Fold this sequence. Notes:
- By secondary structure, the protein is mostly helical.
- The chain starts with a helix and ends in a 5-residue tail after the last helix.
- The protein has 10 helices and 2 strands, in the order H-H-E-E-H-H-H-H-H-H-H-H.
- It is globular.
- Helix content is 76%, strand content 2%.
- Strands 1-2 form a two-stranded antiparallel ribbon.
Amino acid sequence: MKTLLLAEYKKLHRSKLIFLLIFAVVMTLGVVFLQGQFSFGGKKYIDTFGWYILQVQSLTTYFVLPSLIVLFGGYIICREEQEDVLKSLKLIPIDESNMITAKMVITLLGSIFVYLILFMVSLIIEAILHLDAVNISEAVNYFVVYALTAIGVFMTVSPIIALTGLVRRSYWIAMIISEIYSFIGIFFASKEVIRAIYPISSVFVFSGIYEASIIEFMISIIINIICCLVAYKILKKIKY
């Protein structure tokens, strides 16, 4: 498994998707910063400590990263077939289940890595703007929020990634589907209980962004686990 993970990691150096992820991260940080220049009640949004770091997390989760994670995961699952290297892999041979597991683990690690990059950059910007307001406890709290969001987003989109690998359809189509899937979560954000049931909005309950009851929190965990189980069932059917 360690060898497969290392192999998948090295393959990413040749992928243009990394540049797409970097572009998305930079654009998100810039858009939210510009959005913060708008005023309400004579005060800019960005002048409030915590607004920027939370807005970055919200914007990326509803509009950007779920679809990119699906694109990323779908690509690395399907790339062997599309690049016509399956014959070589069968000569080695490679255990298919281990290879698919390695691809999903790399996708999870990629999700965590991107979210933590967003966290570090947004925290630095918050520190530049509000140095006196930044403290260790706040930083740790936001770190936990971003880390749990990264894990939750991967879990909720994992069935789409798995289905992309099963049907061997374009992962760009899967990206569009996941974009719609994540955008719909906005309409459930203010609805108690329902927001914990819909997978994408449940991520905000799971990560602690929304003030929710214990019941909502438990429902969000169950929903995330169900998404993983569905993905597992689909992945079991994949045959190269």
